[in-house]
Specification:
With 119 residues, the protein is mainly α. It is built from four helices and two strands. Helix content is 38%, strand content 8%. InterPro entries: Repressor-like_regulatory, SpoVT-AbrB_dom, SpoVT-AbrB_sf. This is AbrB/MazE/SpoVT family DNA-binding domain-containing protein.
Length: 119
């Protein structure tokens, strides 16, 4: 180990949790509560980096697939397509149905009793 490296030994709980030493949290700017990402280098080392914004998560799921072999992007596109189809089906089903329009309006804007309005 070089002079610029430092080392701390920590315990890992039965749930797989380990506490990052305060010295390292301060040095890396890791807030508590906060989030970090673990990166495995080509050499096999594990690097811990703080996540400060959503853009820090970019690439985290790259190359990963679900049990059906779909990437996160493919799964999201499938869900959006299904949502649009479902919305269109509902629009067609209830198009021109005045009673359905009234029910939707009543759900969005429920009538309040006069006692509720006076308080």
């Amino acid at each position: 180990m070089s002079e610029t490296e430092s080392e701390k030994v920590v315990s890992v709980t039965s749930r797989g949790q380990a506490t990052i030493p305060k010295e390292f949290r301060e040095e890396l700017g890791i807030d508590t509560p906060g989030r970090v990402k673990f990166i495995r280098t080509e050499e096999g080392d594990i690097v811990v980096r703080p996540i400060r914004s959503v853009t820090d998560l970019r690439g985290v799921l790259e190359g990963k697939t679900d049990e059906q072999g779909c990437s996160a992007t493919e799964r999201l596109q499938e869900e959006r397509t299904a949502d649009k189809a479902s919305e269109e089906e509902l629009r067609q089903r209830y198009a021109g149905d005045d009673e359905a329009d009234e029910r939707r309006t009543a759900l969005r804007f429920p009538k309040r009793s006069s006692s509720t309005l006076n308080h």
